[in-house]
């Protein structure tokens, strides 16, 4: 309420109030333009988040921070008058957010729950919070980074004055509003660069796994770009069962797990290159047999140790059973394809046999020995001719073949095979007699049992190799 003399006209009073309001808004607008110009220049130069944080601190005269949505520090610039530790500021904001979420949940009668320490979509605009940071009363002015409906973090200015001056808080509000948009744009640019680099690295890993280099010179040139030693020893590990089949977030989850695998077991001068291939995560691991150098199979043991560690960590992160297998170690980057193919074969056999532990191609010694025979026309013909009578319509489907394989696997023990199949001993005896007539072989003889067992293994291996080769060479 303003009281003036009668000689002052209403028009003059209105003009005075308008000039005061305009002067204030002009001052705020001029200061906002200064802030925007100084930050946009850094954005144009691609200076990065640290430079933007430094400029925010210089403009405000206070500590400035850039945080991710979970209040983890991305950039921090300390003020000169009072030094706050970045972790302390982040912890204070996180605790304050947790308290606000708990208060909101209790205020609505427990009907609303929380999904974390921060809301999924915080309200736009600056917020002012009084906090206790390392035993010091401080005021934080923060603004959420919101671009295209996505919350990417926070920009924060920490005012150490207690109590803070209203004019300073107003200035900090002017700083954080444009800073949130500009910092979000810089984060988007950095994310695009990172994704482009990941795609390029993924293309390189795919080329290594599938042997898609025109010649040795191309391999050496691309390897030199990633500082990838061409002549080192490598092994390939593959894993599946990492995400739900058909889930729309499966590709994203696999890329995140690939990034985790690249950081897992990091050692100096040891390269680990992961890449998602369909529903399989493949990891190229440079083998350094530390701790096993005196052992003749030191490289295989080192690769097996890493595979077991990787399986345990993947299961911990995905909360489901993960199937992991690996190929034999190879010398030189040009032979990585061989290790990858063996790893895929080992994974296929592992899944078909129901093995519940990490296994390498070398661990499946029988299959490793028979792989060339299974791929040959002679091996395929032998398996097909031997098993065909058991699979014919006269045999009644796969039950007869299953009974014979169970009998052979039990070492010719009729009772053990019957218990394995949960059938009566006489039923088992009838099936074996019938199979012997169809095969025209006496299955009680060890030589004939071996022939059926060999045909079964060759057939299993041939089917697995066919599936793997179709995946590796779809054309």
From TrEMBL:
Signal peptide: none
Chain residue ranges for the region called Disordered: 95-126
CdaR GGDEF-like domain boundaries: 211-348
InterPro entries named in the record: CdaR-like_regulators (IPR051448), CdaR_GGDEF (IPR041522), PucR_C-HTH_dom (IPR025736), PucR_C-HTH_sf (IPR042070)
Coiled coil regions in record: none
Domain spans labelled PucR C-terminal helix-turn-helix: 404-457
Family (UniProt): Belongs to the CdaR family.
Protein name in UniProt: Helix-turn-helix domain-containing protein
Organism: Micromonospora coerulea
Higher taxonomy: Bacteria, Bacillati, Actinomycetota, Actinomycetes, Micromonosporales
